[in-house]
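Notes from the pairing session

We agreed to fold both candidates in a single pass and log them together. This is the raw record for the first candidate, unedited. Please don't reformat it; downstream parsing expects exactly this layout.

Candidate A
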Amino acid sequence: GYSLAEADLLRRAMGKKIKEEMDKQRELFIQGATKNGVDYDRASYIFDLVAKFAGYGFNKSHAAAYAVISYQTAYLKANYPLEFFTALMNLNINDRDKLNLFYHAAKFSGVSVLSPDISKSKAEFSIEGERIRYGIAALRNVGFSIAEGIVNTRSSAYKDIWEFIQNSGHIINKRALESLIKSGACDSVHQNRKQLYESIDTLIYFANKNRQDKESNQAVLFGNLDVLRPKLEDVEDFNEEEKLEHELFSLGFYLTNHPLEKFRALLKKLDIGFIGESKTIKTAGVILNARMRTSERGRFVILTLSDPYNVSEIAFYNNEIIEEKRNLFSPGTFVIIDLEASGNTTRLAGKDIFEFTERITSVMKRLVLTGCADSQTAAMELSSVLKDGGRTKIMLELLLEKHKVSILLPGAYSITPQAVCEISNLSWIKGIEIDTNSLLI
C-alpha cells in the first residue's frame, strides 16, 4: 500500500541507515501488509529481511561486478606484487595511514620500499629494480609541485648538497627542505642530517643568492665555486632514535627501522609480544593516531598502533581508562597495552594502557647478569649504566678461573628498557635473566 513518495522515504531511510525512520517505516509496512492480507508475523519477517539488506547489500549485477574486480585485484597482487603495490601507493599518495598499511602489506609480500632520495626518487612511487622507491611528493610539506620541480631540474645524480641547492634551490622552501633532510632523502649527498638541519637557513640563503645571481646575469669570477659556499654547522649527527622520530614526522611511519626493534629480546622475556608477530594479550607499540568516536554504547577511542611487523587498530571502550590515560594517546607515544581476550577479529579491544618505559621499569624485580669478568671490571662498567633510586636488584653471576661467583650488588636501581639494551651490549655479558613482579606483569 505504499505510494511512490512513501516508497522513496523508505529507500532514503535504507540508504542513509536512519534508525528512527526505519522504526517508523516498520510500523507503516506491517500495517499496509496486513491490510493486503499478509499475516503479521510474515510481514514482520519480510521487513526484517529488508532492514538486513539495508545494512549492506547489493543487487546481483552489482555484486557480480565487485566479485570480478576482487578476483582481478587478488590476481594482480599475487602475480605482480611490485607493480601492484607501487600503483596502490600512488593511488593513495596523500593518505599517510593507508601508505603505512600498504608498506607493511608490501613488506609481508616480500616487496621492499627504498627511502626517498633526491638523486633517484621520482615525484610518485616508482619501481627501481625489484624494489619500490619512495616518491618525494608523499613527504610532508613537499607535495607534487615541488617534487615535480626537483625531478624535472635533475639531469643526473647529485655530487653534493650544494649542487642540489644550486639546481633546485629556487623550487624548494624551508619546510620542504626540512622534510627532505629529516626523511633521509639527502643522505646520498650528505650523511650528516643534523649538520644539514642546523644549516637550513644557510642553505636557503645560498639558494636565494644563487637565484639572484642568475637573474642578474652575474658571472662567477672564480673557477672554483667552493669559495662561494658557506660553511655548514659543525655538529654531530642525530642518533638513531632521533632519525626514526624525524622519519615518522616526514613519512608518517617508520621505514628504515622501528624504534621497538631493539627491545624485542627484552619484551620476549617479559611475555610482551607484537600484534603483527603472534597472538598476544600484552602488546607493545607506538601510537600513530587516536580517533574519538561515539556509538550506541557511548564514547570510545580508536588507537592506530605501530610495531615492527604491522599497523593495528585497538579500541578502548572504558570511559575511566579514556579519561585517566588520555595523555598516552598522543602520536609518537611508546606504550604497553593489555588486550581484551576476545574472539572478535574485526577490531582489537584494549583493557588498559601504560607508558612503555615506566611500565617495563616497574615490573623488573631483579636482573641476574651472567658473564666472564672480574667483579671490579663488571662493577665499573655497570656504574656507567645503572641509576640509583629504583626497585630493581642486580645479581652478578661471574665465572672466575673456572669458579662461579654470585654477587648481589648493594641497593636497588632504576632499570629502563634502554639500560637493559646497554647492559646486554657490554663485552663480558653472556646472558640476562629477569625476575618480574607478577602482581604487575
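Candidate B (folded immediately after A)
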Amino acid sequence: MENYVCTVCGYVYSPKNGDVENGIEPGMEFVDVPENWVCPICGVSKEYFEKAGQN
C-alpha cells in the first residue's frame, strides 16, 4: 500500500487509514479512490497528489 501526498498542502493519504470522514474506507488504495474525491485539507483534486512511499 502506497501513501500519496498532496503537493499543495502536504496532506498524506494513507490507504491504511483511508478518509472515513469523506466516505473512503480504510484499505482503499489511492488509485481506487473516486475521481471526485478532493483533499480534505485544501480541496484540490487527486491530480495534485504524488506517491510518497510505502505505508
